[in-house]
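Can anyone check this?
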Amino acid sequence: EVQLVESGGGLVQPGGSLRLSCAASGFAIDDYAMSWVRQAPGKGLEWIATINWNGAGLYYSESMKGRFTISRDVAKNTVYLQMNGLKSEDTAVYYCAKKRDTVLDYWGQGTQVTVSS
């Protein structure tokens, strides 16, 4: 059974950093591309970043490029999202998702990130 479990969210002050983790089970993350997506209060889903199956391709939303970094640890079957320079507008629920072809076919339950002083 495929499962994705996010962790690492919380309350952080503007300008702070967080590292989100996504522990995968039921499949190997080096067989598939993995993505991070977020949903701010009252807004739709926003794609953040994708790491491709071999880890060589990293793709970012232009609005978050330079502040957010996607990475993975194949041995731990875990994907990460390092977020620096956080702003109030980064407040959202953050999801990781497995990608199959062009579809995000499995999602985690999400982790809340709140940026506030």
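Reply from J.R.: I decoded it. The longest strand covers residues 92-100.
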